[in-house]
Structure formats: C-alpha cells, structure tokens
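Re: that chain you flagged

S.,

Sorry for the slow reply, it's been a week of failed gels. I finally had a moment to sit down with the sequence you sent. For the record, here it is as I used it:
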Amino acid sequence: MGTQNNFVDYRTFYDTAGESDFILPSEVEEATGLKYDDETLSRFLEALPQKDDIEWCKKMDYIFIPGPPEVLSMERIVSIQPNLFHFDTKEVSETCLKRSLKTKWIIIKKSVLMHEIYHRILSDLYEKIEKRENISHYCPGPAELAWAMLIYRMSRKKYLLNGCEVLSDATIGFDSPLTRSFPIMFMWNKPEDKIFLYRLEAMSIDIDAVTIVIPTRLSTSINEDKEEDLPF
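Prediction finished late last night. Pasting the structure tokens below so you have them in one place:
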C-alpha cells in the first residue's frame, strides 16, 4: 500500500474507488470546517495505493477516509460534534480522550468479523489467501474509529458500522486477581443518534465485534498514544 500510483487528481481515484468507498478531502472540509493545505492534499494523493490494491479494497468492503489536516486529539475530534458521543463512564472517557489521530488515510473495513477470524487475519492467513502480502491489518484505535464514524455520519448522513459492537485497541484494567484488561467498544445508537463508548465486561470468543484498518504510507506507526512527527 502507498507505493507509486498513477493518479493525477482525486477525481481519477474517485472514479476507481467509487463514491460509496471513498470520501473526498473536500467533503471533510465541508463537514468539519477544517482545511487542508495544498501540500497535504498533494501528499494524500501520492499516498494512495495502486489501482489493483484499490480494487481489492473495494472487493473486501473497505472505505477510504482522509484523516484530519493536522494531529488532532480525541478530545478535539469529539468537540466537532459533542452531542454525537456518549462515554459510559469517566474511566472510558479518560482512556479515550488521551489518544490522538495523525494526518493519514484511514482505510477501514465497513463490516465486522468474528473475533476468531480476526486472529487468523493477524496470523497472515488472510494475506496469503488473498495474495496481498504487501497489505497488513490492525485493530483501530479510539481516535480512528471516532473520526471515521463522525466523518461518515456528517458527510454521507449514514451510519458507518451500523448495528455493530466495534472493538477498539484501547483497554481498561479490571481489578481482579488476574489483573485482566477489557477493551473499549464503540456502538451506534440510532434512535438517539449517538456513538456509545463503553468497556466490554466479558470477552467472548465468538463476539461479532472486530473491524480492521490497513496502514498506509502516511501512517508508519499505529501507536496513537505516541505523538510522532508526520511522516511527510
């Protein structure tokens, strides 16, 4: 992903990816009021994958969403539309709000996978079957999920990962002899038009809760807690 491509403008890529699988930076600007400078837009274009990888992403139900024009804290992301987010507890809020999101493409799967299938993906079985050894996957962080769900809702008036309990990579410790940690989940509540964030109290091997993200050249690190210089 992120190797040299032949796209001269976003329209060329838009025609390849399709409207349902690609959100333009201009749509993010219109929805949020944030602005991308010309250099950032150029870097985004350079970082797009090659055509065959885009077609693979379409086939596997991924959507391309531009990240913010600069590093944004989770708190700043939530402030764009604060009524959209509901944190179940103060502990969940504090854990999530310390995260941040860099300027990068978020290529996120629009559907969820059974937990056991996700672990097989991490063991590279998925890449071998699909013959996409250059594509890796990881579980999204809270800031990535919050941004992707927010932008999709604001720009398309639709719900990304609707009806799904979605696993993030953030965890909260549990005070027990085993000192276990449980993940923070995201879920749309359509009647209230809110994204609920809460700690999963018990982990089931068959939980239908995992979505995955593909790293791109604009994102060399998946550690959102560690703020690094943008890899431009």
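What I noticed first: Confidence is low (pLDDT under 50) at residues 122-129, 204-209, 217-232.

Talk soon,
D.
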